C-alpha cells in the first residue's frame, strides 16, 4: 500500500513541468507589495540589518518573489 502511494506521488511530481529562464528578471514592485520606507533614525538603531522584507505569491502558474533588504555597513568589520 505504501509503495503505491509513493509511486503516485512520484508520478505526480514527474508529470509536473517547470521551466526557468537563463536571465533573472527585475521589475518594479507589483501592486500587491506593501513597500516599507526606512526613517532617518534607522541607521541609529544599533543593528546591522535595517530591513528584511520578503513576499511570495503564486498566481496563474507563476511564482513571484519580492525581497527588499537594507544592511548598514558602518565599520570595516561589518564588511567581513
Would you write up a description of this structure?
By secondary structure, the protein is of the alpha+beta class. Helix content is 18%, strand content 26%. The protein contains 1 helix and 2 strands; from the N terminus they run αββ. The protein has one helix at 2-15; strands at 49-59, 62-71. A two-stranded antiparallel sheet has the order 1-2. Strand 1 and strand 2 (62-71) form a beta hairpin. It is elongated, with a radius of gyration of 21 Å. Mean pLDDT is 77; it is low at 1-12.
Structure, briefly:
This protein is an alpha+beta fold. It is 18% helix and 26% strand.
Count up the helices. 1
The level of helicity is: 10-25%
Average pLDDT, all residues: 77
Overall structural class, as computed from helix and strand content, comes to alpha+beta
Q: Over all CA atoms, what is the radius of gyration?
A: 21 Å
Order of helices and strands: HEE
Largest sheet: 2 strands, antiparallel
Task: Walk across the major sheet and give the strand order.
Answer: 1-2
Head-to-tail CA distance between termini: 54 Å
Instruction: Indicate the overall shape.
Output: elongated
Strand percentage: 25-35%
